[in-house]
Amino acid sequence: MTDPKPPVPLFDLKRQWLEVNDDVHAAVERVFATQQFILGPEVAALESECAAYLGVKRAVAVSSGTDALLAALMALGVGAGDEVITSPFTFFATAGVIHRLGARPVFADIDPRDFNLDPGKLAAAITPRTKAIIPVHLYGQAADMDAMKAAAPNIPLVEDCAQAIGTSYNGVRVGGIGTFGCFSFFPTKNLGAFGDAGLVTTNDEAAGEKLLDMRMHGMRPKYVHHFVGGNFRMDALQAAILRAKLPRLPGWIAKRQAGAAHYRELFRTAGLNGTVHVPEELPGRGHTYHQYVVRAPRRDQLREHMAKQGVGAEVYYPISLHEQRCFVDLGYRTGDFPQSERAEAEVLALPIFPELRSDERERVVATIAEFYR
Fold first, then answer.
1. What is the edge-to-edge ordering of all strands in the sheet holding 158-160?
2. 2: in domain
């Protein structure tokens, strides 16, 4: 009897740890020596290095990707009676922060090619109460920012870049195109911390200064509060870890992109192109493949088959936001956003992390081919 094959994980941070452990240990020891754990020089250095990498004037480190979105909307003055337009097909935080501020999330359907907000759907969603639009660069591919600016020329765009650090749109890195860019450093992101952490970017110096105050309860100088902000501060330990990892990010992205190209060839040679729809890379829109998401018929049965074979896969996202129970009062119904609902039934994320071996990708596709025979 042959030994069972080892599992192919959806993601394996332990493999990355083998590469970064020496540098990370040195980074955290540096913080331990200073005994300065909140903000401080490590956070300031990370902000400077991220601003340089992203090509923006200001980068403000915060406590999470969710808090990045929250702080950006607060800086815009979003509150009760306002509306903010976003996608129904994204992680919950994108709409959750709108609701937390007393504003109304307004959804517009997605483009089926890239799963991002469809600029052609924006006009019908805009009202006199629209305070901002949050386009999401989902899975790592840039949304069509020029078309969104054309559709809403006078409305601030808050880019949700949680899955897209390093992605470019027509040669400009995301996070520097809209009024604000909001990034997540959740551990499994392309650049991940050892806990929660986030970043807000802007090319508006005054907005950058306001964000610095916003993350410290609206305080400047000490104990003088000009407005009510929040406790959105990043830990120095997280900043040090991210600084140790940041120089490796371009190489990790290149490996993800090479893995995506390999998948594309494997699906072609397996004769699955007419069955499984691989990600479409649209002109001018970079894709950093935080997730490699295919559309697959009988998706749930396929995922069950893969699990039995020890091959990881995940669904991002199985329920569109307009169908979530907590948003029932918004008045949306199933059928309102057909492209989002179609995506929730078809999408399947396959392993794509940088350390994934070519033979593991081959096994992923072979397992899928076996299911469709």
1. 58-62, 198-202, 180-184, 158-160
2. no
Cβ atoms of 351 and 365 closer than 8 Å = no
Report in angstroms the alpha-carbon separations of 1 from 4, 5, 311: 9, 12, 21
CB 48 within 8 A of CB 68: no
Measure the N-to-C terminal CA separation of the chain; round to a whole number of Å. 25
Beta pairing, strands 104-107 & 83-86: parallel
DSSP string spanning 233-287? PPBHHHHHHHHHHGGGHHHHHHHHHHHHHHHHHHHHHTT-TTTSBPPP--TTB-B
The residue count for the chain = 373
pLDDT in tens, 235-285: 999 999 999 999 999 999 999 999 999 999 999 999 999 999 999 999 999
Query: 347-350 and 198-202: which strand pairing?
Result: unpaired
> Which of 246, 266, 285 is the last residue in one of the domains?
246
Residue 292, token pair as written in the block: 């490699």
Rounded-to-integer distance, Cα 216 and Cα 119, Å: 35
Do 153 and 170 lie in a common domain?
A: yes
User: Do residues 140 and 275 share a domain?
Assistant: no
Shared domain check, 291 and 171? no
Q: What is the pLDDT of residue 327?
A: 97
**132 phi and psi angles, rounded to 5 deg:** -165, 165
Question: In this structure, is residue 19 part of a structural domain?
Answer: yes
Return the beta strands (E) in the chain as ranges: 58-62, 83-86, 104-107, 130-134, 158-160, 168-169, 172-173, 180-184, 198-202, 292-295, 347-350
On the question of pLDDT at 1 being above 50, the answer is no
CA distance 300 to 251: 33
Please state at what angle helix 358-372 crosses helix 299-308, rounded to 10 degrees: 130
pLDDT at 4: 75
